[in-house]
């Protein structure tokens, strides 16, 4: 069984502090609509963990700790069809991917099952992340029942003129995007894309991660991500060839449409590279605890969770993708475009001193805490939503 690791991420006692912005407003009923979020909430046999699902589980938990009523609408995994409560959060099941007849299942049970789960949630706000048909369904549901719909971008391509999704889902997604009450984006770049391509205004709320301890580096360079073409994991092998005395660890599961890429990683023969394939969150967290440097080789991203996993521990990042020039602006590592750009500075970052690691961690805590995201989100939505009945606890935050 693969455990979600959610309890691991939040295995701290909430600090008693002054009231946060989220606690100063009336509590809300918020439902996260996400097909695969169940794998980030519970133990499953499914080797799957996406960044969008992890973000929603973190944000949902922080909202709950701030006194809001949080629920999730998600697909069935491991045959668990019954609705359930996980750590105080209601989880409503929509459908099993194998249910229904080919050619008809997109209507029943996929549309009908999702609609029914959202009705059972009876939320004030429905939050959906990632471009797809669910965006349009959520928008229609919220217009039908007078609810508020928040769309949250997960990738730069969500806001391209032609999003990189199945053509059968594209119209529903773009209609839903245009009818969202609020659009949340991860970066200023995404905000500009949304405005230029759709004429819509976005609200920037970067990804977040719970605080971690400053860790002791064990000397290896870590690469983490799904085996997808735009993430270019083979470039990690090229870099490893340039630094034969440096240990590299690669973590990532197979992705639909890219099995050959995964096989190439499996069959590599470099003695200084260890390929571990898919690993559950708790194992990946332990690997981050020992990493000296995080390597990113993507051509495009949204806002990588791996960056936050690294910075929360004071680990510098070397990457080809720098959202809003954050790495450069806050001196969190280095940005490069090709292997020939790498030099002695690469080894220098692997051997970063404790003072540099502490500075990186302090920057993370200032800009990327879950509480910061929740406060920003609730500030946007509070004027539009009638108060709920529940009362918020005082002084508990998620930093």
Question: Explain this structure to me?
Answer:
By secondary structure, the protein is an alpha/beta fold. It has two domains: 6-209 and 369-384, Rossmann fold; 220-367, Rossmann fold, CATH 3.40.50. It is 35% helix and 15% strand. The strands form two sheets. Strands 3-4-2-1-5-6-7-8 form an eight-stranded mixed beta sheet, with helices on both faces. It has a six-stranded parallel beta sheet with strand order 11-10-9-12-13-14, with helices on both faces. The radius of gyration is 21 Å and the shape is globular.
Number of helices: 14
Helix-and-strand structural type: alpha/beta
So what's the oligomer here? single chain
Mean pLDDT: 90
Distance between the termini: 30 Å
- The CATH topology of the largest domain comes to Rossmann fold
Give the tally of structural domains. Answer: 2
Q: Order of strands in the sheet with the most strands?
A: 3-4-2-1-5-6-7-8
Q: Judging from the principal axes of the Cα atoms, what is the shape?
A: globular
Give the number of DSSP strands: 14
Order of helices and strands: HEHEEEHEHEHEHEEHEHEHEHEHEHHH
CATH class of the largest domain: Alpha Beta
- Low-pLDDT ranges: 12-18, 389-395
The named CATH superfamily of the largest domain: Glycogen Phosphorylase B
What features would you highlight for this structure?
14 helices; Rossmann fold; 35% helix; eight-stranded mixed beta sheet; 399 residues; alpha/beta; six-stranded parallel beta sheet
Task: Please write out the topology.
Elements: H1 6-9, E1 29-33, H2 51-65, E2 69-74, E3 84-86, E4 89-93, H3 110-121, E5 125-129, H4 133-145, E6 148-152, H5 167-178, E7 182-185, H6 188-198, E8 203-204, E9 220-224, H7 233-242, E10 248-251, H8 259-266, E11 273-275, H9 281-290, E12 291-296, H10 305-311, E13 317-319, H11 326-330, E14 333-335, H12 344-350, H13 354-367, H14 370-381
């Amino acid at each position: 069984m693969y455990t979600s690791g959610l309890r691991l991420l939040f295995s701290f006692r909430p600090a008693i502090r002054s009231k946060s912005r989220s606690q100063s407003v009336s509590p809300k009923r918020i439902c996260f609509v996400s097909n695969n979020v169940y794998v980030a909430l519970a133990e499953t046999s499914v080797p799957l963990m996406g960044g969008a699902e992890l973000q929603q589980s973190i944000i949902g938990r922080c909202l709950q700790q701030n006194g809001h009523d949080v629920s999730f609408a998600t697909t069935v995994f491991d045959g668990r069809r019954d609705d359930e409560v996980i750590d105080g959060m209601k989880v409503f099941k929509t459908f099993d991917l194998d249910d229904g007849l080919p050619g008809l299942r997109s209507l029943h049970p996929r549309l009908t099952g999702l609609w029914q789960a959202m009705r059972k949630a009876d939320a004030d706000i429905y939050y959906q992340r990632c471009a797809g048909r669910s965006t349009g369904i959520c928008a229609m549901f919220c217009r039908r029942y007078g609810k508020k719909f928040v769309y949250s971008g997960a990738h730069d391509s969500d806001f391209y003129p032609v999003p990189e999704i199945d053509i059968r889902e594209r119209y529903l997604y773009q209609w839903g995007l245009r009818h969202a009450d609020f659009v949340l984006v991860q970066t200023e770049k995404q905000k500009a894309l949304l405005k230029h391509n759709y004429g819509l205004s976005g609200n920037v709320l970067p990804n977040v991660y719970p605080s971690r301890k400053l860790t002791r580096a064990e000397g290896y360079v870590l690469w983490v991500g799904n085996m997808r073409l735009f993430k270019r994991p083979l470039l990690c092998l090229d870099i490893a060839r340039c630094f034969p005395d440096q240990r590299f660890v690669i973590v990532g599961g197979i992705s639909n449409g890219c099995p050959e890429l995964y096989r190439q990683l499996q069959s590599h023969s470099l003695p200084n590279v260890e390929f571990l394939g898919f690993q559950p969150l708790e194992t990946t967290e332990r690997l981050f605890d020992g990493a000296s440097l995080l390597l990113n080789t993507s051509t495009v991203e949204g806002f990588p969770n791996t960056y936050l996993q690294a910075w929360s521990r004071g680990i510098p990042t070397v990457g080809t993708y720098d959202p809003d020039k954050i790495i450069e602006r806050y001196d969190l590592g280095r940005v490069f475009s090709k292997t020939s750009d790498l030099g002695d500075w690469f080894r220098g970052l692997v051997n970063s001193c404790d003072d540099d690691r502490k500075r990186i961690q302090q920057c993370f805590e200032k800009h990327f805490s879950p509480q910061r995201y929740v406060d920003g989100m609730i500030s946007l939505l509070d004027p539009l939503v009638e108060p709920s009945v529940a009362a918020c606890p005082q002084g508990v935050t998620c930093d």
